[in-house]
Amino acid sequence: MEHGVRRLTGVVLVIAAMGLDFWLALGPSTEWDGAARVARFVVILSCLGVIGCGVRLVFPDKAEDQQARVTD
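User: That's the sequence. What structure does it adopt?
Assistant: Structure tokens below.
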């Protein structure tokens, strides 16, 4: 994947996950009870994972890039 497309995908993922995360944490969903509360907590944690993956797309690991250049 090209660096520009990879970085754009990472930025879009981070912004979308942050928007959903903020809405779930601060929005009208705070009155949910029972299974919905557990589901909200799972979605919030998965949003944090998506944010982490998006950051890895924006800033790829340098060791992988250097190995790819050496093998070429």
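The radius of gyration is 17 Å.
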